[in-house]
Amino acid sequence: MQKLHVAVAKALVFDMPKVKILPHPEICPEGAEFELNNDESLCEGALRNGLKIEHACELSCACTTCHCIVREGFESLGEPSETEEDMLDKAWGLEPQSRLSCQIYPGKKDLVVELPKYTVNQVSEEI
Ligand code: FES
Prior knowledge:
Blueprint: H1 2-15, E1 18-21, E2 32-35, H2 42-48, E3 67-72, H3 82-88, E4 98-100, E5 111-114, H4 120-126
Parallel strand pairs: 1-5
Antiparallel strand pairs: 1-2, 3-4, 3-5
């Protein structure tokens, strides 16, 4: 029985996707790496690991401040909802691999993620 528990625990541990955040001058100058828990969005995982990703709408897909660009593993993610796509249109620095980190629930594939230099809030404050 104990062997079964160990096998299940190992399977759970090894199935958790790893996330690599590329260096960002303010949020993580050295970059960061962490694993996501089950049912945890990318934004939730980043916040749990001390990365101060802006999340003005409290992860409800109603702003674009958690915008990120998925450099590796993009194709493994589920399709964005219509609401996410509409919100992404307002994001600063939009790219084909842009997503809202509060709406990404990675599967088994590891991700490499870039955080844009600015959020939409920072840009509008400077105007
Ligand atoms: S935190 Fe607002 S859209 Fe993600």
